[in-house]
Amino acid sequence: MLEAFISTMERSLKNVLVLSFGFLLLFTAYGGLQNLQSSLHGAEGLGVAALSTLYGGMLLSSMLLPPVLIKTLGCKWTLVVAMCCYVAFSLGNFYASWYTLIPTSVLLGLGAAPLWSAQGTYLTIMGNAQAEKAGKVGKDVVNQYFGIFFLIFQSSGVWGNLISSLVFSQRPTQGAIPEGQLRSCGASDCLMATASRNSTNQPSQELIYTLLGIYTGSGFLTVLLTAAFLEPVKDAQQRREGEKQTPPLWSTLLSTFRLFRDKRLRLLVLLPLYCGFQQAFLAGDYTRSYTTCALGVQFVGYVMICFAAVNALCSLLFGKLARHTGRTALFALGAVTHLGCITALLLWKPHPSQLPVFFVFPGLWGVADAVWQTQNNALFGVLFEKDKEAAFASYRLWEALGFVIAFGYSRFLCVSVKLYILLGVLSLAMAAYGTVEYLESKPLAAAPTEPATEGVTQRKM
Q1: DSSP strands (E only) in 56-193
Q2: In 3D, which of 38, 293, 303 has the Cα closest to residue 187?
Q3: 275 near 405, Cβ under 8 Å?
Q4: 13-27 pLDDT, tens digit each
Q5: Which long-range contacts (CB under 8 A, 24 or more apart) does 351-355 make?
Q6: CATH number for the domain running over 16-233+258-460
Q7: The predicted structure's pLDDT at residue 428
């Protein structure tokens, strides 16, 4: 009996690690490419337009594809198919034009929502199944699995950006940046995404091809790893109900929209919306208007390494810490950290002589982003445990909408205005989250002596 339990635990952890390292390889490529789009393809705003199109495709996909694909193919093969879409985007960057980047961006966007919905569903199922076997609380194991996943996954930013920095640093560095250009960096930048930043320091085409070759190989390796070693998984609830009750296609297709009847989901959508806004700002605006403008494109990878490293370490920490502090304290930490960063970015005048400061902001940003990534996913998985596919599809839908809006207005608004928008969305998201926590606490306060049922246990999570 004990040997069987240990074997089950080892298999569960093995699957979590396979999934995590698959995402590590995949996003080593995609993360590095995303951070460089606005700097490498700045002509006519092609890079930002590609990212906006990408998340527009993800928005459309979130509304329709994840529940259908997961029900039809299962989590494993949904992941494999979606990963192939990411490889296509890497290939499209070999000849960056409106006719290659935009179509492959659409394809990646269509695959992104199923990828992340299948990931969230897979980890939630694995966590609940392991908790049931071990006699533990489901939310604790789910939080732990998400913590392990995001520790490994977020480190992809370290490797992806380190690769790009090492490749691009093979050329001679540029001379001093004119003071006139420095005055238009940071929050003062109103030249938009179409402006060319430090074009004299653009890497050669040969170096770009070298980088893209590494990234594409990483993507192909991801597909092989996941297809060969990740075990299929079925929800315990589906096993209990039996396959005979498989819902019709249109019912599955509309499940994402039906879930909006839940008041909690209508309030919580502001969390993934803000998550999209803040990630888009860091990848598109901080890298261009602060780092590339004042230091040069060769420093983009290094500052993003700082973000990814802090994010990865904090993801593991917060996954374990949540069981002791509760999620509310961690959400408060994330909100206060981002509030401080946004305020400071509004006041800071970036200059090459302040090199350490360029790394402080991504580090602090990574602390807050670790909160959003681990706690948002765990929160949606726990509150909507019976509708995981639809819940995670909804999460990705609103996160994608945040990306689309942020990248869409990137060409038209000053950086200072974008920072004020971040402040407003963050404030609304935290107010809505607090309302949900209040609603979740009311049934417990009304009947504190009643024995815990399955529904009450879910609300405690």
Answers
A1: none
A2: 293
A3: no
A4: 889 999 999 999 999
A5: 351/182, 351/294, 352/176, 352/177, 352/182, 352/294, 352/295, 355/295
A6: 1.20.1250.20
A7: 95
Taking 70 as the threshold, does the pLDDT of residue 444 lie above it? no
Spatial contact of 279 and 184, defined as CB atoms under 8 Å apart: no
Amino acid occupying residue 35: N
At 198-254, the pLDDT tens digits run 444 567 788 888 988 999 999 999 999 999 999 988 754 455 444 445 455 555 556
CA distances from residue 232 to 11, 114, 122 in whole angstroms, order as listed: 12, 16, 9
Q: What tokens appear for 266 in the block? A: 């209508």
Domain extents in the chain: 16-233+258-460
Separation between Cα atoms, residue 158 and residue 394, nearest integer Å:
29
What region does 55 belong to: left with phi over 0, alpha with psi -120 to 50, or beta? alpha
The reported pLDDT for the residue numbered 452 is 38
Overall size of the chain counted in residues = 461
Distance CA 125, CA 234 (A): 7
Instruction: State the burial class of residue 320 (Cβ atoms within 10 Å of its Cβ: 0-12, 13-18, 19+).
Output: middle
- The pTM assigned to this predicted structure is 0.71
Could you report the per-residue pLDDT of 374-405, keeping only the tens digit for each? 888 888 878 887 777 778 778 877 888 888 88
Give Cβ neighbours of residue 353 (< 8 Å, ≥ 6 apart): none
